[in-house]
Amino acid sequence: MKYGVLLVDGQPTLGTLIGDRWVDLGRATVDYHRMVEGNDVARPRDVGDLLRNGWMNRSSYRRIAEFVQRHGRLSDYALAETEQSFMLPWRPGKVIGIGRNFRAHVAEFDNKLPQEPVYFAKAPTSCVGPGESIIIGPDYGRVDYEGELGVVIGGRGRHVSVEGARALVAGYTLVNDVTARDVQRQDMADGNPWFRSKSADTFCPMGPVVVMAEVLEWPVLTPLETRVNGAVKQQSDTGRFIFSIAEVIAAITRFITLEPGDLISMGTPEGVGPLRDGDVVEVANPQIGVLRNPVRNSHPVAQS
Q1: pLDDT per residue over 182-208, tens digit each?
Q2: DSSP per-residue string spanning 169-214
Q3: Is 89 helix (H, G, I), strand (E, B) or coil?
Q4: pLDDT digits (tens, 9 = 90+) for 258-296
Q5: Which domains does the chain have, with CATH numbers?
Q6: Consecutive H or E run containing 79
Q7: For residue 11, what are the contacts with CB-CB under 8 A and spacing of at least 6?
């Protein structure tokens, strides 16, 4: 049960995997509602549309899959599958990053172990899809990769308990929490938040797809690997979180309402390091796939 946005004939197209074939989910959803439910719905364009409509769950997936297969339309809806064709799955309403959530990562920066989840915001405008370039500006200084698991929020919640947190999770994706490290250190020294060091344009690659929550067992235990130019730089798993996904959701919702389409990036393991012009960075997981992005330097261009 995977969802993604693919570039098909030059157009972004929402797809899902049925069996071993990617199909046009937007078209199938419109046809299903018209032919089976007897109503007209707007064509979903990305994962965000599914989340806001409550359509990213096992029952919705099964209804669409059965409709496509029962009516013999698998070939009609089929899309060509190439990893390079995947795009940004959706632009989250909020991106909340979790800092210092692996003990070994805390140790490599000589920080104190947190007593409760440390979280921060990344601007939604920093989000880019697989294959898009991570841009390093001329005054950014050192820029680091940080491979992470992304938790996709499918429900609205405030004051959510640890026991009730799972109900808010619609799925998972991969995130590269790119960080302007020198800028972050200067801001911390000045007593300022991390926002600008985390939120530069292109500093939140995500994808390549979203897998439904049921794909990963709860509590989530799944590997994470980050590679730069093919060399493994980070290798860990979510069993090493200091704070679990449920604990993080409970902590956030004490202060902030989570809504469908929000994204929580769960923190990075040890092994972070700098990116340079010409690098290719990959964040990998066996269930979700490989989030691959090239890196390039850029000079500022004025825009109106």
Answers
A1: 999 999 999 999 999 999 999 999 999
A2: EEEEEEEE--EEHHHHHHHHHTT--SHHHHHSTT-EEEEEEEEEGG
A3: coil
A4: 999 999 999 999 999 999 999 999 999 999 999 999 999
A5: 2-85 (no CATH), 88-297 (3.90.850.10)
A6: strand 78-79
A7: none
